[in-house]
Design goal:
This protein is mainly beta. Helices cover 1% and strands 52% of the residues. It has 1 helix and 68 strands. Strand 34 and strand 35 form a beta hairpin. The chain is globular, with a radius of gyration of 29 Å.
């Protein structure tokens, strides 16, 4: 018995039933029906595993070797590159893939390099900051080359290839990585096969359109190596890491590099492994946890793939215990793909490889999770089986628009020639116990584990539920909440989306802060070019597309040059400005609430210079008894107590603070959720919003990083984060283009299981097909 129809006879209304709970169930919580006739609360179980999700999508009409693949972080398109092996030519080719559900459709291939024996070893990667822009980095006939391209619709165009130098880009590890903090900038690594020392070099490239400008090559302080990889530390501006194996002692080494323009200053070289002849080493940093990385190599001595996790802080490498990649032992491993973190979900990722088990070849994949410096692999799954080993490694790339989805490519050599196969796969990050058929109803009151309680079922009305919208259709979600299927989860940056809505501020050429009135029909923007605050009307609340200037402003120049943040008290009778010239918070009185034309300086100020000389953001708690300031001098949030709420002249430092330096350098803005249990910080050097939990509401000293962030890519210099529409929207003013960008919170509906229709603000009719 697992469906409601099994429990209730035909024709029965079944408004309530009595059932035994398998676990504690809170009052008014949705419950599921178990096969034994018991009931359970709705919950999710987190797992990490890789599974093939879609049917094989072969790139037709070509035979090829040395395939590579990438997802576009902006458009979601895929691109596959390879060296042709069909007919008379061995040219470099590429194809654009369109993903729909679990299907990949590949467009007709085009040539990017019309030279035989093209791109023997190569990689392709999309710029995470620029729509549809990619670079292919490859070796050909003893030289290293780069070529830039762009995707438009289902086709791609490329520019002119650029030679790095007469040296082969050697190794099967990733050799190109985009700077996540700077649009159009990438780092590439290659081995100089032409030199007796076999030195390795790193250089910085910049891309404009389909043109490439390459900086000077930087010799890494090592020689006689083979196999190398490179990755940027995504939480630290202009920091990258290099991993390689030497020819001599065949150790695996890592080194940190600090980038300044086209120059790279290398740190201390550290030994990652002194055994197992680490072939094909590669490294990847977590996109959401600063300094957290995973590494992998093929131990040619014991024929196993070794992997592990670690942290990088400054020039200090902390390496965790070595793990064996699942199903990679007993001479089974042939080729490794670089290991990767998911781009959107902290602490999880996947890897794939091609190997043999006896006479059977095939591609496998597995997911992993990371906690600190501990890496844990899930069970591996077969992605594809082939007739013989491919000529290069399989590759994989995560879909940045789907936290658990990634695409893999691999080749095989059937009798007719080389084929490239591609697959969609998924990490099952969480598994809900809710299905389309097992939702039973809502607990009328709290039920203890093993106790009998009353469940309101279909046909009945559950009462006492708070915050319903009369007439609204409600659905049960995987976490046990009730919501609209398309509703965002309030104050969630995980999975947030840009609305493609922005507002161009023309009143000031360097905007720095913004806020709304109480109902979102008015907006206020401050800027440091004019040292003033400007007022706007929104004909549709919280919708920037309906904003217009009121021709109303308030100058703050006499009190505060370079204003950086603007905020109101709870009723709009007071306005507050923080800025860098005075390192102070100034308070203004509005005789008509939220009307800047009635504003004047209240002769009230508070200096924060003892804690922060360059404050960038100021906010208050819900009752105005506490104030919070963040700035770029110390990269820290400071808390102050106001003996008279919202009166800054009564403020004093509360000796409470929270450093955000590990996640943000030069933070510029901050915001709370509705109850003060979450705080969000944004910065200009690391264009991300980072989320923190306060275990005691509004007490900044109890804050800790959630390893949750949102990467910002619409502008260039984000200055603030402001929530609106009850946390369903957020806004980022940017002083680069002087635009404000609008976003919808993420984490919305996770299921479409219907619950019922709200017949009042506290009553839900469980009609099932609402």
């Amino acid at each position: 018995m697992s469906n409601l129809s099994d429990l209730l006879p035909a024709g029965a209304s079944g408004k309530t039933i009595e059932a035994v709970a398998t676990a504690n169930i809170t009052s008014k919580a949705p419950v599921i029906l178990n096969s034994a006739g018991t009931v359970s609360p709705i919950s999710e179980t987190t797992t990490t595993r890789a599974i093939p999700e879609g049917a094989k999508a072969e790139i037709l009409g070509t035979e090829n070797k040395y395939a590579a693949i990438a997802y576009d972080p902006v458009s979601g398109k895929a691109i596959c590159t390879w060296r042709n092996n069909e007919g008379a030519d061995e040219y470099g080719r590429l194809s654009v893939g369109t993903v729909s559900g679990t299907t990949i459709t590949w467009n007709t291939s085009v040539v990017f390099d019309s030279t035989n024996l093209a791109n023997e070893y190569h990689t392709v990667a999309f710029d995470p900051n620029t729509t549809n822009s990619f670079v292919i980095h490859y070796g050909r006939s003893g030289s290293t080359w780069d070529i830039a391209g762009t995707v438009s619709g289902t086709s791609a165009t490329v520019g002119t290839e650029v030679r790095v130098r007469t040296a082969t880009s050697q190794g099967l590890a990733p050799t190109l990585a985009w700077n996540p903090n700077q649009a159009g900038e990438y780092a590439a690594i290659y081995k100089d096969d032409g030199s007796s020392a076999n030195n390795i070099y790193v250089y910085i490239g910049t891309v404009t359109g389909n043109s490439i400008s390459q900086g000077a090559t930087n010799l890494l302080a090592a020689s006689a190596h083979e196999g190398c990889g490179i990755a940027w530390n995504k939480g630290v501006n202009d920091e990258l890491a290099v991993i390689w194996r030497t020819h001599g002692n065949q150790y695996v080494y890592v080194c940190r590099g600090t980038v300044s323009g086209a120059s790279i200053a290398y740190g201390t070289i550290s030994v990652l492994s002194s055994s197992n002849n680490g072939f094909m080493p590669n490294i990847s940093f977590d996109n959401n946890v600063t300094g957290s990385f995973v590494w992998q190599y093929y131990g040619s001595t014991d024929t196993e793939s070794k992997s592990g996790a670690g942290t990088l802080s400054g020039d200090t490498w902390t390496i965790g215990a070595t793990q064996v990649t699942p199903d990679s032992d007993s001479s089974n491993l042939v080729y490794l793909s670089p290991i990767h973190f998911s781009q959107t979900t902290a602490g999880v990722g996947a890897g794939c490889w091609y190997g043999t088990n006896g006479s059977t070849y095939g591609a496998r994949a597995a997911a992993f999770s990371v906690s600190g410096t501990t890496l844990t692999w899930g069970t591996s799954s077969v992605i594809d089986t082939g007739d013989s080993p491919v000529a290069t490694s399989p590759r994989m790339s995560f879909n940045p628009q789907d936290a658990g989805s990634f695409i893999t490519c691999n080749g095989e050599t059937p009798a007719a020639g080389y084929d490239t196969n591609t697959y969609l796969s998924r990490i099952a990050i969480s598994t809900p116990n809710l299905t389309a058929t097992n939702f039973l109803g809502i607990a009328d009151a709290a039920i203890s584990s093993s106790a009998i309680g009353t469940i309101v079922v279909q046909g009945g009305t559950a009462t006492g539920i708070s915050s319903l919208t009369t007439g609204g259709k409600y659905y049960v979600q995987n976490d046990g909440t009730l919501t609209s299927p398309n509703a965002p989860k309030a104050y969630s940056i995980n999975g947030a989306t840009y609305d493609s809505v922005s507002f161009d501020v023309t009143q000031d050429s360097t905007i720095t802060g913004m806020c709304f009135n109480g109902d979102g029909t008015k907006m206020y923007v401050c800027g440091e070019s004019t040292d003033a605050v400007y007022q706007y009307s929104l004909s549709s609340a919280y919708d920037l597309s309906t904003a217009s200037y009121d021709s109303v402003s308030l100058s703050v120049a006499s009190q505060q040059g370079n204003p950086r943040s603007v905020v109101f008290n709870n009723n709009g009778s007071a306005l507050y400005i923080v800025g860098t010239s005075a390192a102070s918070v100034h308070q203004y009185t509005l005789t008509t609430p939220y009307n800047l034309s009635t504003g004047s300086y209240a002769s009230k100020t508070f200096s924060v210079s003892s804690q922060e000389l360059y404050p960038g953001g100021v906010i208050f708690n819900n009752d105005g008894a506490s104030m919070y300031v963040v700035g770029s001098q110390n990269d820290t949030v400071y808390q102050y107590t106001l003996s008279t709420p919202f009166d800054v002249s009564t403020a004093s430092y509360a000796s409470k603070s929270m450093s955000v330096n590990s996640e943000q350098t030069s933070p510029t803005g901050l915001a709370f959720n509705s109850d003060g249990t979450k705080i969000f910080v944004i910065g200009e050097n690391t264009p991300k919003i980072n989320q923190y939990t306060l275990s005691s509401a509004y007490d900044i000293s109890t804050g800790s990083y959630d390893s949750v962030s949102y990467t910002y890519s619409e502008g260039t210099v984000p200055r603030d984060i402001v929530w609106g529409n009850s946390g369903n929207k957020f806004y980022i003013p940017d002083s680069g283009p002087d635009d404000i960008y609008q976003y919808t919170a993420g984490g919305g509906a996770t299921s479409s299981v219907s619950a019922g229709l709200a017949i009042s603000t506290t009553s839900l009719l469980l009609n099932g097909d609402s």
